[in-house]
Amino acid sequence: MSTRTLIRGGLVVTAADEVHADVLIEDGRVAALAAHGSDAAAGWTADRTVDATDRYVIPGGVDVHTHMELPFGGTSASDTFETGTRAAAWGGTTTVVDFAVQTVGRTLREGLDTWYAKADGVCAIDYAFHMILSDVNAHTLKEMDKLVQEGISSFKLFMAYPGVFYSDDGQILRAMQRSAENGGLIMTHAENGIAIDVLVEQALARGETDPRYHGEVRKALLEAEATHRAIQLARVAGAPLYVVHVSAQEAVAELAAARDMGLPVFGETCPQYLFLSTDNLAEPGFEGAKYVCSTPLRPKEHQAALWRGLRTNDLQVVSTDHCPFCFTGQKDLGRGDFSKIPNGLPGVENRMDLLHQAVVDGHISRRRWIEIACATPARMFGLYPQKGTLAPGADADVVVYDPHATQTLSAGTHHMNVDYSAYEGRTVTGQVETVLSRGEVVIDQRKYVGRAGHGVFTPRSTCQYLN
What we know:
This protein is an alpha/beta fold.
């Protein structure tokens, strides 16, 4: 049975265009767009019509950095694939790319199969995977080739967390050389973890145990140094590089310098670095633990450099690094020792709204909003134009967005499975009204009508942003 949905009367906003147009959806895909009131649009009929008058009609968000059910620091991220993808849909995100984890001593295949099993049959929206390489060796390098063919075309390496995920420069170089051959994209968590561990040990010995010291030991210079080192290793390997969760102005400067040389080096930042700061980490009592993530929150003056990087395209993507841990029972594992606080913030539900607030505030344009949240992440990770845009043939991942509504972000109203909001009490302008995933309505006028298992695994091609 063919089904047709018509979205009428809205302002269609993509990375390339803004046009008052009606959108015809057939069998899960965008069939056509035509100017509102045109002869073409007037002749369309549909089983369902959505009135988008005074609304934006935008592509579903693509969040290419999430950690559902991630084991970390003796506990596990509090959102499952079911709860996390449902919350993403509430926030206007229709595709997530999560990280499968290789355990040291095990194969990539085992790690990937574990993540397939976690996500299979429970996701509300479509999903894909990156692969975290924790143990680079001759066997896992060969496995990388097979994963690229399977649609897992990006690999994350950690310069941080010695003893957990850490890879040394030699391992990183080998993985980069392999990706230069197989078309994969290397992602790095760029912080000098060896040096940071020394500073952590010294801070604790001085009795500096509160959450704010998490930010003080993970110095901006050690993010910049690792970013610089990753760029040089990528140059030696002849490989492109994607640096995740860039937080410091000195790291942005390293990326900008590389890009000015014409190098295929890319950077992502996250809403927490754009909207939060070390002021949050320093909140009294143990409240600062809510804001412990790595890379850490920086002093407010770093925000201007991040916004500028997003405007100049020295930073291309905003993802969430959604990795929630409850304040009670998880974050409080680190009472009396900041190094034991699980690293991560909830945010998958808030990204599209916070970035729309950035449009309202004049930091970015509407089209740039869609570019950094939908189109570029899809292109960077081989999902475009199936995802990230509204064009004939694209998946009908569509959000009807009310740019005039106001809402107050709060743990009392969010849908993430976590007991606090990193943005508690913040009022933003703009709200998701209706969400379609492959043509199926998931959020209908602010009501969840989706289902676990609608979302499917989506294999990816190699990076399309290099073309």
